Amino acid sequence: MDQQIISDVRQWLDDVVIGLNLCPFAAKPRAEDRVRICVSHATTDEALLDDMQAELERLSDTPASELETTVLAIPDMLSDFEDYNQFLDLVDLWLQQFGWEGELQVASFHPDYQFADTEADDAGNLTNRSPWPLLHMIREESLEHALAHFPDPEGIPERNVLRMEQLSEDERKRLFPYLFG
């Protein structure tokens, strides 16, 4: 099962995130095999926070030249987006409590992701819709460096929403089989 989950996340990363250039900084570390994709089988908030902490420590303790970022898939809990969104509040508190702020941050992706002030079926939500609930751990230094060398980084979200709105029905089915299959 873990291999299928990892394969699902890799395909999403390659076809959607990198393939549609939603994150212009993802292609290089992925091509250099510096993206760790792993699975947590936690079924409680505490166990998932422990798994996340272990991955944060691994990321912090490993040079960026070997490991740039980590994606933690969560197949056994948080399938409901509201529950997932509430869990993200715990993640923020955890990052503060353990002093990760300024070093690492966590980005969020979910099959039912919905931005505030949008309808559930808004195409723009597809930018953060992944095959599984995910926690994406990112080095802040690397992100700041990438943003400093990218023209108009503030425009990335708007360009991504526009790209999602331009997808044909066939493209949506191909890129998001777990949503439109």
Entry keywords:
single chain, 181 residues, alpha+beta, 4-stranded mixed beta sheet, 8 helices, 12% strand, globular
Description:
There is one protein chain. The longest helix has 17 residues, at 2-18. 48% of the residues lie in helices and 12% in strands. By secondary structure, it is an alpha+beta fold. A four-stranded mixed beta sheet has the order 1-2-4-3, sandwiched between helices. The chain has eight helices and four strands; from the N terminus they run H-H-E-H-E-H-E-E-H-H-H-H. The protein is globular. It has one domain (2-176). The model has no long low-confidence stretch (mean pLDDT 96).
Proportion of residues in helical segments: 40-55%
Largest sheet: spatial strand order? 1-2-4-3
Bin the strand percentage.
5-15%
Enumerate how many helices there are, as a single number.
8
Number of strands: 4
Domain count, please report it: 1
State the end-to-end CA separation.
20 Å
Shape: globular
- List low-confidence stretches: none
Oligomeric state of this protein: single chain
Radius of gyration, whole Å: 16 Å
In round numbers, the mean pLDDT is 96
Largest sheet: 4 strands, mixed
Protein name: DUF1415 domain-containing protein
Pfam family, one: DUF1415
InterPro entries: DUF1415
Organism: Parazoarcus communis
